[in-house]
Amino acid sequence: YHKDFNLIRILDNTLNISETISLNTNNKFSTVTLASWSNDSNFWIFDDLQQKIFKINRNLEILVESNRFNDLGLVNYLPQKLVEREYTLVINGAGSDFILFDNFGQMTKKIEGAHAKDFNFDGTSILYLTETGLKNQAINYPSYTAIGLPNKISSTSIENIKLENDKWYIMYKDGVDIVERNRRK
Hints:
Number of helices: 0
Low-confidence stretches: none
Structural class: mainly beta
Strand content: over 45%
Order of helices and strands: EEEEEEEEEEEEEEEEE
Helix content: under 10%
Radius of gyration: 17 Å
Shape: globular
Oligomer: single chain
């Protein structure tokens, strides 16, 4: 999603642009700040002016619409990232909690995550980075698990991190490191 131009660009498996969708086409979505792919090949967007999330198709038809965030008790909530997996949409705001929505745009849960710098979601767990390290929060379990970072890695310089298949993918402002995860036996 290109916020400055209000465009969604779809890339093919060679990272070439296969489609461009302008959210300015009908002036319905002129203040979109976030967009994310959905499991059913549609898109989730957050419209800052309307303070709602919408699921839209390629023709900009609204398929699902949430209540206004203020009506959900999310006053002054500023979403920073949207991720959908397994028909659950997770939103994290700047200095705020994780908010979970179902596939119909209904808020289902709020999970503490006020100090998350960034997060990944696999459908069952939210893996999020804080100033003090990495935490794993199962969406159906009340408390998180702290995960140690690789040796000589400081969470303060990391932009994003992903743990997958026993490898750490660590993104910095100027590059990416891939580090094997050592498990103690």
